[in-house]
Amino acid sequence: MTDHATQLPHVTPRITINRAGLWLFFLSETMLFSGILATRFSLLGTEVHEDVSQTIGLVITSILLASSYTALRAEHAASSGDRATCAKYLWLTLALGAVFVAGVAYEWAEAFDAFPASTEFGTVFFLMTGVHAFHVITGLIFLAILLNNARLGRYDDDAWPVEAGVKYWHFVDVVWVFFYPALYLI
Amino acid sequence: MTILTSARESPGQAALLALAVLTGVEYVIGGRDITGAFAMLTLIAVVKAAVIVIAFMHLANVLRGSADD
């Protein structure tokens, strides 16, 4: 019986290919978010609406950053086969992500009166927060699926799905790192 | 002291601490009329993104083509 794998000069591990594919996806998403960020500065310059709440911005930003840390802990737990810890940190990440979305929803309720979508700032604000929140909600759905599967032990041998979902969550966090000052501070 | 010690022991905690400090600095700069605030906030955002990409997303593994976690 010939072992074909040993005849090949180099076999790239599946995980390496998966990671490269995921980062290419992030690159394509970066183009979308860069375009939105460029639109914001093109339309508004360095203006920020006075009714934007810097406190809410700070609170939801802190929550999202903290959720990235809990997501990292979930990934580490999954890679070391610790099912219970992975599930615990995925729960925490889900909860923090849900609080972030609730914060954005609260901000939207205030924003509809202060700067409606028909105004220039309103258009930019709802576009940026809306597209980002859509990605956060998508991430929450991913995390919920991961949590369910992790509890059933489906990642005991292969933690790649958890790594991919968590990295997507980090990416959404990176996007917000640029959106936060552009919307609330500059 | 305990926070700093544990941050040294865990890169994830150190990154979180750095992000918290930088976010606080951002908030202070944003709330005041400081010359060059735009440049400072842009620089801080780039540093924060780099911290997440390097410490949380392990970009080095992809660049090296490593199969390690």
Tell me the layout of helices and strands.
The complex is a heterodimer of chains A (186) and B (69).
Chain A: H1 4-7, H2 14-44, H3 54-79, H4 83-114, H5 120-151, H6 160-185
Helix pairs in contact in A: 2-5, 2-6, 3-4, 3-6, 4-5, 5-6
Chain B: H1 2-9, H2 11-30, H3 37-56, H4 59-64
Helix pairs in contact in B: 1-2, 2-3
Largest interface: A-B, 36 and 31 residues
What order do the SSEs of chain A take from the amino end to the carboxyl end, as H and E? HHHHHH
Strands of chain A, total number: 0
The first-level CATH class name of chain A: Mainly Alpha
Q: Which structural class best describes the helix and strand composition of chain B?
A: mainly alpha
Cα separation of the termini of chain B: 30 Å
Oligomer: heterodimer
H/E element string of chain B? HHHH
CATH fold title of chain A:
Four Helix Bundle (Hemerythrin (Met), subunit A)
CATH level 4 superfamily of chain A: Cytochrome c oxidase, subunit III, four-helix bundle
Number of domains of chain A: 1
Number of helices of chain A: 6
Q: How many strands, what sense, and barrel or not for the largest sheet of chain B?
A: none
Helix proportion of chain B = over 70%
Q: Can you give a write-up of this model?
A:
The complex is a heterodimer of chains A (186) and B (69). Chain A contains 6 helices and no strands. Chain A has helices at 4-7, 14-44, 54-79, 83-114, 120-151, 160-185. By secondary structure, chain A is mainly α. The model of chain A has no long low-confidence stretch (mean pLDDT 91). With 69 residues, chain B is mostly helical. Chain B has one domain (3-64). Chain B has helices at residues 2-9, 11-30, 37-56, 59-64. In chain B, helix 1 (2-9) packs across helix 2 and helix 2 (11-30) runs antiparallel to helix 3. Chain B is elongated.
